[in-house]
Design brief:
- The structure is a homodimer.
- Chain A is α/β, with parallel strands linked by helices.
- The first copy, chain A, has 19 helices and 20 strands.
- In chain A, the strands form 4 sheets. Chain A has an 8-stranded mixed sheet. Chain A has a 6-stranded mixed sheet with strand order 5-4-3-2-1-14.
- The longest helix of chain A has 23 residues, at about 405-425.
- The radius of gyration of chain A is 26 Å and the shape is elongated.
- The termini of chain A are far apart.
- Chains A and B meet through helix 2, helix 7, helix 10, helix 11 and helix 17 of A and helix 2, helix 7, helix 10, helix 11 and helix 17 of B.
Chain lengths: ~600, ~600
């Protein structure tokens, strides 16, 4: 057996910021060297950030990615770090002749091994995910190589992300070819409770590959995706050895004892078990094991509970969306209700209350407690606030056009949206919208009104979970939260009956069923794609099934116009679910 | 040789309207029978409409598609049409065990042969397009069969849409197996000048398959896609035999003389030349040729020129978006400028001027000619109009919040957007937005202002083409246009200098280069994906290149919030081009 100290660089890259990402790779490699690591593993497409969507179809972008990789290799050597091998993800190209249906330039979701100033070997993801949030058949061609490099006597294989999730391919080939360690750079987005699935997967693949597995995942927010980190090391039997934290950057080092190999170098084709052939490239960096040393104890980060996990995801998503898009501050309307109260709290935790601006916009229908509850939150959190009553503006509109019923309600919501957008344009704040997933699903919101803005922190959070998260936050905090307040959310905002307050004595339950009932139905219809018969068989009220299905189907256009927001569930309304707007199909109950 | 009369049903299905599509299939089959056809061919996924996006992931939807197909077969028989074979597209399922990365339920983009009340055989698309507007790896698994049925002595093969576009697969197998005729149901969306590409493709594939080819394409608008019809028949040498019109429904019949076959029925595996095996299923409907008859002369529809083609596409897109979404009328703001003038004209041509409502919303910065030009258009077209000055509403806002510069300009655009949305909510009109592609590309529009609405007819039309289309329409008409007016667009709207009129003496050229220069640069950057170095090498001004690239890249968020509109170019800003919002990558000129 031979020892290796592996450094897992669980980092937060910025999409498109090749120079910045490269800079941070150098810094973290230096840290890893200082900690005595023998290998540093960065995440999937770390140099370019992930996902980059149609940027990969630009020749100049792929050129820049490849150039940056080669510069990084040289720079590591110049800065005295060349002896420490680095595995890092980037975008490369396959050099295939163009053909119909092949992404322009044949890009590869690639990973490279850097050593002594050189790019020693390159590989690319074999299985391309094209479901849920992934569109990779659009962007990449598949890789067909599996590098296995000898490092201090141990054979180390590299397989990118999805290659762990699907049957056959590189992992199956590792099992046939034999290796002492499989490392996997990932950019695997968060979904609630995905960490359990992920650990089980890593354990299973380690057993299939017959070797220890190092799984390094991206962390950070990128548009609608939040990456949770949660990097994992398991041994060859699938036992958990080390685990990094969630929703925070971390350079995790782990000492492993691994089998020594003397397999011949060269190129060897293998049947990948999925109809394709994968060529194993065996090469030797350093044949001899390191001198024995005292291993450091491995750390296994404590995991957050469900609400802590979701809340931390939302905070990180807001922080990164603000920072990576170059905003300094946010603005939102504060109604006194729970949705805007939770959104304000997330924002305060993300960027600090001094950079959060709230506007109280009472109308003729606002209740006394609304203003009072909003003011109480301002007091507790110390955010910046102003009041802008909307009655006179609404009157000015109504002098030009006659509106009644829903049209008049929408007008009020739109006046508020315009005030926020005006202040955003004037002062450069990013507008946060405050709608939740239950509203978004049923279309209970106003186009260009409460849905106007740049980012929607709780758009994938059902209303019942909005209350749960608020209670959780009033009872808990995490080191990464920037708001220092006990019980930051007024109890009254949590306990009072929800109302849009767009007409006298309005209640959400005038238009919608109670949220506990609605959210269960939405979960079955949207997340589980159950048909109306199945929904009724599952115990939902038949009349409600018909009504809610109709609401959800008709709200497709509104949802498309909604700002992006962090994905929390398997089926968010952003990248995950795409219906035609022009659609006559309705589930029926007959 | 044997004769066959084939009916090509170039129709406009509605997505999700299975019963309605089935009803019309019966009616058109009756027409085809009346015309003495021996075979009727409907388009790809005709029964469900195309594209249906995530609907195919619903079990209940796929069930309904299969059930509808079987009902249609029985109903054709009941109505005395059972002897006439019908080929029609629908959605089926492959019956595969679930696995990671496979679309839920393993749906198939299928086509079936109906005869004597039965579904005689089923096949499915083999090549799944996953580029441009297509996401079919997300939705379908691939078919691996090629039915060849003997019809009055002639062997007829069926291959769906994309199977014509890619190398290898069913067409290659037809060439090996031998057939007398290849029929292909399609849903191939319009792009300018695609008709030329399509004819050339059909000719080439006919020669490869060694037989005549019948290409039947969908017509109609579906969200952002417009299908142009343009169904084609070529003989085995690739010569054009018959061609249907563009942008209109048509039951085209054609008489062909085709080779007789006596090949054995059964199942035969073939190497498809793309790494897969395709099973040919040979079956016999009717072994003997029909009695000789006098063939009718074939019709080759005259083709529209570029501007006629684009304009007809926009008209059809608006008509179908309005009708298929259940609207009765549209509303738009009429400024006196060319964009809103052209949009109003398209709307009048699509649904008739009596269902078009325009609102004139002068501000303190509107010039005299603006109102006069708008009123002149109202007079020429007979659309419904009203005036709603915005100054008092703007004042009411400015009493609550202090706005200056761009923020104040945006406010005016938003007040107009809110007036239109208010009237839309009150009266049920669909709001049409009037922005063009040059504005959309550079972000020269106001979020929730001029971009507020339900459909954006000219969002994929560059400004220079807005002028060209306006001139074309003033000089031309087509039978399908509902507006009866000579020169419907006031000349002054076409010739005057463009201005947003949001501040005194504003001109578009204050913020943007002249449109002739801008549009050429946008075409090279957006459509051709050229990098900054290539753009400069192509003769664009370096400073302008940097500026425009920055404008385009930063406008990604605005474009995402824009309403859908008909796709006209290869790279529209709807389904075709997807960049991250959070993105630090900028083309540089160094």
């Amino acid at each position: 057996m031979a020892q290796l100290r592996i450094a897992l660089a669980q980092m937060n890259p910025s999409v498109g910021d090749l120079d910045g990402n490269a800079e941070r790779l150098i810094a973290w490699t230096r840290d890893a060297a200082d900690r005595g690591a023998h290998l540093v593993v960065f995440t999937e497409m770390f140099l370019t950030g992930y996902p980059v969507e149609d940027l990969v179809l630009r020749t100049s972008f792929v050129d820049a990615s490849i150039r940056t990789l080669e510069e990084v290799a040289r720079r590591l050597e110049r800065e005295g770090l060349g002896d420490l091998p680095v595995v890092v993800g980037y975008v490369d190209r396959a050099g295939l002749a163009p053909r119909v249906g092949q992404p322009k330039g044949a890009p590869l979701d690639a990973a490279a091994l850097l050593h002594k100033g050189e790019v020693v070997t390159r590989t690319a993801k074999h299985h391309l995910p094209n479901y849920g949030v992934f569109d990779e058949y659009r962007y990449f061609v598949r890789g067909d190589r599996l590098p296995i490099f000898r490092l201090h006597g141990v054979d180390v294989a590299i397989a990118v992300c999805e290659d762990l999730w699907q049957e056959g391919g590189p992992v199956a080939v590792v099992g046939q070819a034999g290796a002492g360690l499989l490392i996997s750079p990932n950019a695997s987005p968060y979904e609630k409770e995905k960490d359990d699935v992920r650990l089980e997967l890593c354990a299973r693949r380690a057993r299939e590959a017959g070797c220890a597995l190092v799984y390094v995942n991206q962390v950070g927010g990128q548009d609608e995706l939040v990456f949770d980190g949660d990097s994992i090391v398991v041994d060859a039997s699938g036992e958990l050895v080390a685990r990094a934290g969630q929703f925070r950057e971390e350079l995790l080092t782990v000492d492993l004892e691994l089998p020594v190999s003397d397999a011949e170098p060269g190129f060897f084709p293998y049947d990948a078990g999925d109809g394709s052939t994968i060529t194993v490239e065996r090469l030797v960096l350093s044949p001899d094991p390191v001198e024995p040393y005292e291993p450091a104890p491995a750390t296994i980060a404590e995991h957050l509970d469900l609400h802590g996990e979701v809340y931390a995801a939302l905070v990180l998503a807001v922080r990164d969306y603000v920072a990576k898009n170059g905003f300094q501050s946010v603005i939102l309307g504060l109604s006194g209700g729970i949705d805007s109260a939770l959104t304000a709290t997330i924002a305060s935790d993300a960027i600090g209350p001094s950079r959060v601006n709230v506007v109280l916009m009472p109308s003729r229908y606002s209740s006394d407690h609304s203003l009072a509850d909003a003011e109480e939150l301002v007091r507790r959190q110390g955010v910046n606030s102003r009041i802008a009553p909307i009655a006179d503006i609404v009157d000015a509109f109504e002098k030009e056009i006659e509106l009644s019923g829903l049209a008049a309600e929408n007008l009020q919501a739109r006046v508020r949206g315009m005030i926020l957008m005006g202040l955003s344009n004037q002062h450069g704040h990013l507008v946060l919208t405050t709608g939740n997933k239950s509203e978004l699903a049923t279309g209970y919101s106003t186009l260009y009104g409460d849905s106007a803005g740049g980012f929607a922190p709780i758009k994938d959070v059902p209303k019942t979970m909005v209350w749960e998260l608020s209670r959780w936050r009033n009872a808990n905090s995490l080191p990464q939260f920037l708001l220092d307040a006990k019980t930051p959310i007024p109890e009254n905002s949590i306990t009072k009956e929800p109302s849009a307050e767009l007409r006298p004595d309005q209640r959400d339950t005038d238009s919608l069923p109670p949220y506990e009932i609605l959210d269960r139905l939405l979960d079955d219809y949207v997340e589980k794609d159950m048909g109306s018969k199945e929904l009724i068989a599952a115990g939902h009220d038949p009349e409600l099934v018909t009504r809610v299905i109709r609401l959800v189907d008709l709200a497709e256009y509104k949802r498309r116009q909604y700002p992006p927001g962090p994905k929390i569930t398997p089926k968010n309304f952003g990248r995950d679910r795409r219906l035609p707007i022009t659609n006559r199909w309705r589930e029926t109950t007959d």
